[in-house]
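[SOLVED] Predicted holo structure with flavin-adenine dinucleotide

Edit: marking solved, answer below. Original request kept for reference. I posted the sequence and ligand SMILES and asked for the 3D complex as structure tokens.
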Amino acid sequence: MARLAQTPGLTDEQRAILETVREFADKEIIPHAQHLEHADEYPADIVDGMRDMGLFGLTIAEEYGGLGESLLTYALVVEELSRGWMSISGIVNTHFIVAYLVSQHGSPEQKVSLLPRMATGEVRGAFSMSEPGCGSDVAAIRSRAERDGDDFVLNGQKMWLTNGAYSSVVATLVKTETGAESVYGNMTTFLLEKEPGFGETAPGLTIPGKIEKMGYKGVETTEMVLDGVRVPASAALGGAEAGVGRGFYQMMDGIEVGRVNVAARACGISIRAFELAVGYAQQRQTFGAPLAKHQAIAFKLAEMGTKIEAAHALMVNAARLKDSGARNDVEAGMAKLLASEYCAEVVQESFRIHGGYGYSKEYEIERLMREAPFLLIGEGTSEIQKTIISRGLLKEYRA
Ligand SMILES: Cc1cc2nc3c(=O)[nH]c(=O)nc-3n(C[C@H](O)[C@H](O)[C@H](O)COP(=O)(O)OP(=O)(O)OC[C@H]3O[C@@H](n4cnc5c(N)ncnc54)[C@H](O)[C@@H]3O)c2cc1C
């Protein structure tokens, strides 16, 4: 979009990357998204294209074969991809979080072993905290790992793994008894390597099948059953010494960048919903004038554009803060909260502007109507964002 969601202060390299991704979205994603989404078909050609552009290694350091770009570049790329189709950003996102976790918290051996293969997209990452019995309340997970000599043996059931099947490494949070007083010190993230696909993809590790969803199709979301999965203690993120008992804190760090990504997705979907609405409103005639000439409709467009600007600004701010090395829990929470709530509203308004045609599967807006609600839930619901924001503010403004 020429005017909305501009980002001041980008380098020439960032601008070049974004231009390439935008062109890719226009030519390779948007024309195919409706068909692939309705068929719930894995977008293999689009994934190949992303691999060729180096997107799987976008934020991985150059020494490991990546492009070494910032969280901001990544978030703006996600915005462009989601403008094309949210599922495409879903394919890179858990991969990006796992690459971030390994880069930030991995042992030297884990970095050398995983990052070069992740940078090419040969190894793709999934991220698993949620379980059938809990999502928001992460500390209530029941899957566990018991020590057995130099190994750990994992048992339990995980839920909602985006990229659960096509990934080859799953960052998996489980309980471990470390003797820590706090429940948060008794959790460990293991890097579980497996074959891509469904069924028993590593000894004791089963990906049963994909969960049927109302939207966000094309990218698979799965369960994962752990039945006596044996891994060396060195599979703990950070290694046997440093990693055991650090899992909760590592995952929360990963989730902060994940929240910026969800905010960016929300911006991308909102931009697309706006583009569709502003186009339709100038074509469709009612009562002798294009819809856009009716002030009630023009004002909707004004509100939609304003919401997009606000969400984009907050998202960029949260990304830049994290890139500066600061914690951004409150700012990422605010960006995620505002962008996802505004996205639901902007998409709904675009849908209304489309009248009856918005309800037809021939029009893109019906897909966006099924995608936007996920952003209110994924990477922590709006209620959880408000909990994080209020906790941070009360700490800062202690009476
Ligand atoms: C398509 C999809 C993909 C996903 N991908 C992944 C993934 O890749 N990896 C992963 O680990 N997880 C993933 N998830 C899980 C997602 O993170 C959880 O669904 C989300 O965190 C919410 O958890 P829940 O579903 O258990 O809801 P619950 O925690 O049961 O919450 C239900 C409702 O109660 C509210 N609520 C809960 N506690 C409170 C409270 N204290 N105060 C006020 N309100 C509260 C919530 O906001 C929500 O509205 C995915 C989910 C979906 C739908």
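OP edit: Residues 247-283 form the longest helix (37 residues). Thanks to everyone who chimed in.
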